[in-house]
Amino acid sequence: MADELVHYEVRRGIATITLDSPHNRNALSAQLRAELTGHLKAATADDAVRVIVLSHTGPVFCSGMDLKEAGGASADKQGVNEFPAILQQLWTSPKPVVARLAGPARAGGVGIVAACDIAVAVDTATFAFSEVRIGVVPAVISVTVLPRLLPRAAHELFLTGETFTAPKAVAIGLINSAVPADDLDAEVTRYTDMLALGAPNALAATKRMLQEPRSNDLDAVFADMLALSARHFGGPEGQEGIAAFVGKRKPSWVPAED
After folding, report:
1. Which of 22, 25, 20, 45 is nearest to 35 (CA)?
2. Per-domain boundaries in the chain
3. Buried b vs exposed e over 180-217: b needs ≥16 C-beta within 10 Å?
4. Fold of the CATH domain 6-195
5. CA gap 120, 178 in Å, rounded
6. For the segment 133-154, what is each residue's pLDDT rounded down to a tens digit?
7. What's the pLDDT score for residue 75?
8. Mean pLDDT calculated for residue range 176-182
């Protein structure tokens, strides 16, 4: 559709969701939020989709909430009320999500980056938690951002609103890789190819395991992890993976080559 702001395409098990609202720097307008939500639901529900890539058109990945829509609205009418659901979709998606940034991210856009499992950016991209500079608080995005960042960096960057570079974003844990623009797509493909080698249920279970808090009771933690491990060793995917390894063939879940 010519008037849609988010596009969706599936190829070889990779669902690519593309933000296409360059006129407002891919700001999180009501229409963009609705379309992004719908496409994330579609990708999650499609058994043929193994990995989700979140990309964009234009020079900016995402500038955060649409401030033109936010102006004049009361607290209960703000678009930010819908934002936690989007971040939760990304964070809890059973399919790994890779963010592809060919340009900067700001505020809520950085929250989206943090909610993805892997993030790759051009080395010229910049980032900022600019909320305090316009009188608001980076509260919602803190849920996904703080687990990624070094604590000192979080205090520095949340409180100052300072713009920082892609190499610094790598150093503090916000993104995985910063590469020259000509290498961006190859780097994204490198990650998606590796992710596609993982078994779907094993990937989903591993993602949940990485996100779950752990108690200080070491015996209980080992018991839970043993149960999880044994269940997957003895399950259909585990048995298929073992048989494929012994038989020196690819497991059944690996996408076929074009």
Report:
1. 20
2. 6-195, 199-247
3. eeeebeebbeebbeebbebbbeebbbebeeeeeeeeee
4. 2-enoyl-CoA Hydratase; Chain A, domain 1 (3.90.226)
5. 6
6. 999 999 999 999 999 999 999 9
7. 81
8. 98
The token duo for 109 is: 């856009």
Considering the entire predicted model, what is its pTM?
A: 0.95
For residue 244 the two structure tokens come to 């494929």
> What would the two tokens of residue 111 be?
């929250």
Per the CB < 8 A criterion, the answer to whether 98 and 119 are in contact is yes
Angle at CA 34, nearest 5°, toward 28 and 40? 100
Angle in degrees, CA 172, 149, 176, rounded to 5? 55
Residue 178 tokens read as 């910063």
Sheet of strand 97-101: strand arrangement? 6-11, 14-19, 51-56, 97-101, 118-122, 177-179
Q: Give residue for tokens 């596609």.
A: 196
Which position has the token pair 């790994």?
A: 96
What letter represents residue 175's amino acid? I
pLDDT band at 205; cut points 50, 70, 90: very high
